[in-house]
Design goal:
Alpha/beta knot; 7 helices; 7 strands
């Protein structure tokens, strides 16, 4: 028996308006972008953050902030739906996050890292730090992390594009969070 798949048009996808999306509960994950040089990567992370339903993005260092046409090009409007804020350095906000019970995690190839799929119930809420496309997370910022997660590399390259890595890690975190929480916790989180 052959299955038939009919591609849905945008008007048939039951997408939320920006206003409705901002009122919905989000997954307890924050992304911190530090010294991201490509505005296209910034926009891509915004788009992934919207799709994954995460709480917010924190932008630090010389990472560009919206509105910028390069961010808008890849964010496709997600810069309007995902809450974001800017701080000059991660240390300006990480202490506040930790004091409020947020686990600070870096996504980096590092000694004593854990696999990105090893997120645990007690790690939520969490903040995932993403660093520069070439240099990764600065050493002083890495020392502020409670945990470091790593995506394994099986080829000749030692890293992924930061926006690709963000997508892999964020969706894994959302999956783990949704598996560990009772169904009632998802009543306000829209179907993703």
């Amino acid at each position: 028996m052959t299955k038939f798949f009919n591609k849905l048009r945008a008007d048939k996808m039951s997408r939320l308006t920006v206003e409705a999306y901002t009122r919905k509960s989000k997954h307890p994950v924050t992304v911190l972008l530090h010294n991201i040089r490509s505005m296209y990567n910034v926009g891509s992370v915004f788009r992934t953050a919207d799709a994954a339903g995460i709480e917010r993005i924190i932008i630090t260092g010389y990472t560009a902030t919206p509105p910028r046409k390069e961010i808008d090009k890849t964010a496709l409007g997600a810069q309007e739906s995902v809450e974001w804020e800017y701080y000059s350095h991660p240390k300006d906000i990480l202490g506040v996050l930790k004091a409020s019970g947020v686990t600070v995690c870096g996504l980096e190839i590092a000694e004593n890292s854990r696999p990105y799929s090893d997120v645990r119930k007690e790690d939520f809420p969490l903040c995932l730090i993403l660093g520069n496309e070439v240099d990764g997370i600065d050493s002083d910022v890495l020392q502020l992390c409670d945990h470091v997660f790593e995506i394994p590399q099986y080829g000749t390259k030692h890293s992924l594009n930061v926006s690709v890595a963000a997508g892999i890690a964020l969706y894994e975190m959302v999956k783990i969070f949704r598996q560990q929480k009772p169904v009632q916790a998802f009543r306000e989180i829209s179907k993703f």
